[in-house]
């Protein structure tokens, strides 16, 4: 027969295991980003893709603040969804989204370059229309 002490110990063990699995899933397996916890989406409207791709890094002043989550073709060009981390630096709404290269042969990423350090700041649903892409190589 299981005593009350053993039942309490099993309950404490189960709670600790659940807390550990939740913490590990959110922080190391990035499960929070899969369901949108701790992130918000901003749209950048580009005239063409400039070589950007899904899951490309998004930076602000040299610091990674998110990833490209989706690309959609439109009549005006390409809408790029940027999924930014809530805990990262606050990015001014007056920013230019630039498709940049890591090196001459490196992959592209989106760099958010502020034109003003003051607010308002980007938030869920913000749209960036001030964009720049590298010139095509012919």
UniProtKB/TrEMBL annotation:
One term under GO cellular component: extracellular region
Mce/MlaD domain: residues covered: 39-114
Origin: domain of life: Bacteria
Short name of any one Pfam family annotated for the protein: MlaD
InterPro entries assigned: Mce/MlaD (IPR003399), MlaD_Phospholipid_Transporter (IPR052336)
PANTHER family associated with the record: INTERMEMBRANE PHOSPHOLIPID TRANSPORT SYSTEM BINDING PROTEIN MLAD-RELATED, MCE-FAMILY PROTEIN MCE3F
UniProt name for this protein: Phospholipid/cholesterol/gamma-HCH transport system substrate-binding protein
């Amino acid at each position: 027969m299981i005593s009350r002490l053993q039942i309490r110990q099993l309950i404490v063990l189960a709670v600790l295991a659940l807390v550990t699995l939740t913490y590990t899933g959110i922080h190391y397996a990035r499960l929070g980003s899969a369901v949108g916890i701790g992130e918000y989406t901003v749209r950048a409207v580009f005239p063409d893709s400039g070589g950007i791709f899904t899951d490309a890094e998004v930076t602000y002043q040299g610091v990674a603040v998110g990833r490209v989550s989706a690309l959609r073709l439109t009549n005006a060009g390409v809408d790029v969804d940027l999924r930014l981390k809530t805990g990262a630096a606050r990015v001014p709404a007056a920013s230019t989204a630039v498709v940049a290269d890591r090196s001459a042969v490196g992959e592209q990423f989106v760099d958010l370059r502020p034109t003003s350090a003051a607010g308002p700041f980007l938030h869920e649903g913000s749209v960036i229309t001030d964009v720049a892409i590298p010139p095509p190589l012919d």
